[in-house]
């Protein structure tokens, strides 16, 4: 039977949907600089709004270590002493996990979980991998500004580079590097560098010129990250002419009821296009179900037709496979007996003999038995 493999394949396809598509979803894998913070959103369906949420660390879901729960009592850690915090928003159907001061040992698999409970009901979860690295990054990899203005680049580094000198260089030219002093500072007429000595330093380029366009490096120790500076021509928009008109009597202001306040424009505009988070997963599950029906129904009809055809073919072959010996032994089973008003002849009876005489003038008469 082909139906069992097809059903197994369909079940396997549904079970491999990423991030438990019909239940809980979260972001993809993350790379975070050592000493930095990260925020992870975990989205869930409306049916889980009142359930307990949790965040755990471990390679296996059933054996992971719980770090924070939505029902856990809050102690002194709520003031910011804890590295992990959670905020659940049932209205938006998302809970957010914040992890601070990440270290190399914090790398690994993490799980967004909704505690369902029960013997036959497993918790619904979604996983992601966080990799804590040592190195550098920038807030914006491309910064633009007009000629004559200033721009600022923010360079981030892991805590392992706090004591290293910071450099700002033209890409590919180490001799052009500007280096901070012991207090993490450098300044001249065109460039200013300020290091907070904890996790970031800023570079300000002053009085931009077209020749300043190009690639640069933020560097600390043996690590560097590239930044592109784009200098554009100054805008030439002329100021609008001022038109003087005679003063007009200002209309009487209309009081606004304090109990009615208009919604902010950006909220009112987005409300018309809001869709619940569970609508898309349900659509995907419905489409997969329809595809399964479209595949299995024609196969079932074809299988039924083949069974009927094979049955008829077997009956026909059985009728045609009767041997001649069976026909001679039982002729009535093949040829029906025709009944008339006369007594039927027996198959063992012999018709009566008739005598005939042939006369010939030249020979004596000959008698034969017929």
Question: Nutshell version of this structure?
Answer:
The chain has 370 residues and is α+β, with helices and mostly antiparallel strands.
Descriptive account of the structure:
By secondary structure, this protein is of the alpha+beta class. Among the domains are: 19-133, Immunoglobulins (Immunoglobulin-like); 136-232, Sandwich (Immunoglobulin-like). The chain has 4 helices and 21 strands. It has helices spanning 3-15, 265-271, 279-320, 324-329, and strands at 24-26, 30-33, 38-44, 52-57, 65-69, 84-89, 94-99, 108-115, 124-133, 136-138, 142-146, 151-157, 166-170, 173-179, 185-187, 191-195, 200-205, 214-220, 223-232, 355-360, 363-369. The strands form 5 sheets. Strands 2-9-8-4-5 form a 5-stranded mixed sheet, with no helix packed on it. The protein has a 5-stranded antiparallel sheet with strand order 10-12-17-16-15, with no helix packed on it. Strand 15 (185-187) and strand 16 (191-195) form a beta hairpin. Helix 1 runs antiparallel to helix 3 (279-320). Mean pLDDT is 76; it is low at 11-21, 75-80, 246-276 and 333-351.
């Amino acid at each position: 039977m082909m139906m069992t493999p097809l059903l197994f394949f369909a079940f396997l396809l549904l079970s491999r949907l990423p991030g438990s598509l019909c239940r809980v979803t979260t972001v993809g894998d993350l790379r975070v600089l050592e000493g930095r913070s990260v925020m992870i959103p975990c989205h869930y369906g409306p049916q889980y709004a009142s359930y307990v949420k949790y965040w755990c660390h471990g390679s296996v879901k059933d054996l992971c270590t719980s770090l924070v729960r939505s029902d856990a009592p809050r102690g002194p850690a709520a003031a910011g002493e804890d590295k992990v915090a959670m905020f659940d928003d049932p209205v938006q159907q998302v809970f957010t996990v914040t992890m601070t001061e990440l270290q190399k040992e914090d790398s690994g698999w993490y799980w967004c979980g909704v505690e369902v409970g029960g013997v036959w009901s497993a918790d619904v979860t979604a996983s992601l991998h966080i990799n804590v690295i040592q190195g550098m990054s920038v807030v914006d990899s491309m910064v633009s500004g007009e000629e004559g203005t200033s721009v600022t680049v923010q360079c981030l580094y892991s805590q392992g580079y706090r004591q290293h000198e910071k450099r700002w260089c033209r890409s590919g030219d180490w001799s052009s590097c500007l280096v901070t002093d012991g207090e993490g500072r450098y300044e001249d007429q065109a460039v200013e560098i300020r290091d907070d000595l904890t996790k970031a330093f800023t570079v300000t380029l002053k009085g931009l010129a077209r020749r300043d366009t190009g690639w640069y490096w933020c560097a600390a120790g043996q690590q560097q990250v590239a930044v592109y500076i784009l200098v554009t021509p100054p805008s030439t928009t002329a100021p609008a002419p001022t038109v003087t008109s005679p003063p007009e009597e200002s209309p009487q202001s209309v009081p606004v009821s304090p109990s009615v306040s208009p919604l902010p424009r950006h909220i009112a505009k987005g409300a018309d296009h809001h869709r619940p988070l569970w609508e898309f997963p349900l659509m995907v599950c419905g489409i997969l179900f329809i595809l399964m029906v479209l595949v299995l129904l024609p196969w079932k009809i074809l299988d039924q037709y083949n069974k009927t055809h094979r049955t008829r073919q077997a009956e026909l072959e059985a009728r045609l496979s009767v041997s001649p010996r069976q026909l001679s032994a039982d002729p009535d089973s093949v040829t029906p007996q025709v009944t008339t008003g006369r007594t039927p002849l027996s198959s063992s009876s012999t018709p009566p003999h008739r005598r005939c005489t042939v006369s010939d003038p030249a020979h004596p008469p000959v008698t034969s038995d017929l």
